[in-house]
Amino acid sequence: MEFDSTTFPLRPAWAEIDLGKLRRNVQLIRRDLPARVRLLAVVKDEAYGHGALDVARVAVEEGAWGFGLSTLEEAMALRDAGITAPLLLLGERQEAELSWCVAHNLTVCVNEEHTVRALAKIASGFGKQVSVHLKVHTGMSRYGVRWDQALPLIELICSEKSLQLEGVMTHFSQSDETDKSFANLQFARFNEVLQDLAARGVSVKLRHTCNSGGFLDLPHAHLDMVRVGILMYGVFPSSVCRRIPGIKPVMSVKARIAAIQHLKAGEVVGYGMRYTAPGERRIAVLPIGYGDGFPRVRNQGGALIRGQRAPLIGGIAMDALMVDITDIPEAQMWDEAVLMGCQGDEQITVHDLAKLKNSVSYDVLTNWRLRLRRKSVNGTTTNEHKLTRMETAPA
Ligand SMILES: *Cc1c(COP(=O)(O)O)cnc(C)c1O
Fold it and tell me: Which of 7, 69, 307, 378 is a plausible cystine mate for 20, CB 3.0–4.6 Å?
């Protein structure tokens, strides 16, 4: 008996990442965009929990120009794995990060004077001219220089020979709701900055404003590039935004039945005895809980087993939850249950889970914890490599 990774008995709970669906989604997004508009694939937070390296490899093959990331660690993990495409670090950098960014050709968003000066100095020390993207705040009040105060910063960037103003960007506070009035106000403010740039004869290669919602619903704001995250993973940012037929969720969450219990009328289930059996019940225990990122619910939601809905009963525990399988008599030990995704004709969507925790789809996707192993399917990259934070397990 060998005790190595090929014989390791994998936990009967996992997140399945369908790289074939991801590839199709990126193709559909690419096809929906005019050819001149670049696609920045947003892969921050391990590609919203899908595994940044697998996603990056597929997206590069399907024509993504580069990647949007949040932290230096995320960017370095892709560089270390051999991704050479442009990596744009969204947000603000600490000064200590700047030399790493210059050394590894990471593109920094700049928001204020101090960072511009520090970055310019480091770049010239390296004998490099580095690309930067100016982030303009047009109403979101997060990162970025105010739209009506951007000019001095633009002039400073242009005066630094070791910097090249490759991009100028803003971010919408609300792009996926029916009411686009605030997004349009933000876009008008952004255009004032673009006019100032043009008046000074500064040409910027990449002007970009749109996330998934903007990409879908604000075609006049596409400009030179769109920054798409959630839609690539097959999840529409809201129920009212435009639909692209064929876009499918990439991640499913599954577990196998690890115990079956038979209850008599009046018996209770789980911590706090939140469920009392009204009659004889047959219940299944699934070895997945809030410690894996499932919303901490009681008597709400459920799982799909043998193509049917099994309602969740009692309160969910850290490592287990119970579902009622009385009406699924064919269900057996180690049957596969779907907690997010499709089985037969039934589906539990990311939005269904978001509703259970009073939150949004982004929160559900990024909350699946890393102890829930990611299993890539329908891809060529499965098991070729180890992710830094997640192991791609054998199929
Ligand atoms: C996360 C992020 C995006 C991607 O947003 P989605 O709604 O997932 O498409 C785009 N731009 C910025 C600045 C971001 O932080």
Answer: 378
How close is the Cα of 26 to the center of ligand 1, in Å? Answer: 15
Other beta carbons within 10 angstroms of residue 199's beta carbon come to 9
Predicted local confidence at residue 381, as pLDDT: 53
pLDDT digits (tens, 9 = 90+) for 257-285: 999 999 999 999 999 999 999 999 999 99
What is the SS3 string spanning the chain?
CCCCCCCCCCCCEEEEEEHHHHHHHHHHHHHHCCCCCEEEEECHHHHHHCCHHHHHHHHHHCCCCEEEECCHHHHHHHHHCCCCCCEEECCCCCHHHHHHHHHCCEEEEECCHHHHHHHHHHHHHCCCCEEEEEEEECCCCCCCEEHHHCHHHHHHHHHCCCEEEEEEECCCCCCCCCCCHHHHHHHHHHHHHHHHHHHCCCCCCEEEEECHHHHHHCHHHCCCEEEECHHHHCCCCCCCCCCCCCCCCCEEEEEECCEEEEECCCCEECHHHCEECCCCEEEEEECCCHHHCCCCCECCCEEEECCEEEEEECECCCCCEEEECCCCCCCCCCCEEEEEEEECCEEECHHHHHHHCCCCHHHHHHHCCCCCEEEEECCCCCCCCCCCCCCECCC
Question: Per the confidence metrics, is the pTM higher than 0.90?
Answer: yes
Structural domains in the chain plus CATH codes:
33-233 (3.20.20.10), 251-391 (2.40.37.10)
Q: What local confidence, expressed as pLDDT, does residue 8 receive?
A: 87
> Which atom of ligand 1 lies at the shortest distance from residue 230's CA?
8
pLDDT tens string 315-334:
999 999 999 999 999 999 99
Positions marked catalytic: 44, 271
What is the overall mean pLDDT for the chain? 94
Residue 227 CB–ligand 1 contact under 6 Å: yes
